[in-house]
Predict the 3D structure of the following.
Amino acid sequence: MGAWDYGPFDNDGAWDRIAELGDDAAANTERLEAAMLEILVVLDYVESPEAQGAVGAAVLTAIRLGAPSPNERITELVAAHPFDAANLRDLARRTLKRVTENPVDNEWHDLWLESGALDKVVGLLAPYKAVLEAEG
């Protein structure tokens, strides 16, 4: 059974990426970086599962940098899995911009637009975008 709701961790794509995290900070940083680069370097249409994973990585980065966690489970997850958020800030900022502001080439945006919930999910990402756009 899949996960689905409006929040950045309410989908299988984000949880697939989270499941890859372990105890090694350098490895976790590389995994989160890879998730975000996967949608930033592609020239073709970005599929929703990849975008979900990248959004999850970007939001984890924002939380580590001081954004509010959406729930206690995510707070515990961030505490349990070290990574270097400072070095991921720009990638995370660009990732959230890519999915929310480039409607012509990503399924994440298309699906939320078609469902009538795009404004809602973009609004849920606003606190994370604000932290990532702030001077570090």
